Amino acid sequence: MKPKSLSLLTGLFIGFLSLNAVNHLWDAYAPMKQNMLEGNYFTAILLCVEMLSFLAIIVGISLVIHNVNNSRFFAKQNYIGFYVAGCGVLISVNSYALIEELASIDHTLYLAIGTFLFILAEIFRYGYRMKQEQDFTI
After folding, report:
1. How many other CB atoms are found less than 10 A from the CB of residue 96?
2. Which of 16, 50, 91, 138 has its CA 20 to 30 Å from the CA of residue 100?
3. b/e for 103-126, b at 16 or more Cβ within 10 A?
């Protein structure tokens, strides 16, 4: 039985994440459409990549939150979710940097977040392996 406060907090977090995703995707859609109409296909493709990477971040984090909410801490989906989110962060920041030509973004924070997500993925992968070994011992 999971506590109601955990369900409420994760529900609020996923709701906030979803609202942020819709806002981000809407902000990226209008310039992508405008660049397609103007013939700037490279910029439009980078904006599309940025949108897809942001969706990957949302899916990865939501997968981990869902598993943790159901008391599945060291499941294979958790470390895959962290890997997907980490790749999404790194791809998103690099595509944005190419669009803005390295002008107005600080890579350090986003590289740290992406690296931290990869470290979390490795920790959860190690925990998953230990859980597998424990399940096979008598």
Report:
1. 20
2. 16
3. eeeeeeebeebbeebbebbeebbe
| Cα–Cα distance, 38 to 32 (Å, whole number) | 10
Helix (H) or strand (E) holding 48: helix 41-69
Q: Which of the four pLDDT bands, split at 50, 70 and 90, describes residue 80?
A: very high
Percent of the chain that is helix, strand, coil (3-state, to 5): 85, 0, 15
Record the tokens describing residue 120, joined without a space: 């979390």
CA dist 120 and 53 (Å) reads: 19
Cβ neighbors of 134 (< 8 A, separation 6 or more) are none
| Angle subtended at Cα 31 by Cα 30 and Cα 32, rounded to the nearest 5 degrees | 90
pTM of the model: 0.74
**Among 114, 103, 93, CA closest to 50:** 93
Q: What does the radius of gyration of the chain's CA atoms come to, in whole angstroms?
A: 18
Q: Which two tokens stand for residue 129?
A: 């392996």
pLDDT of residue 86 exceeding 80: yes
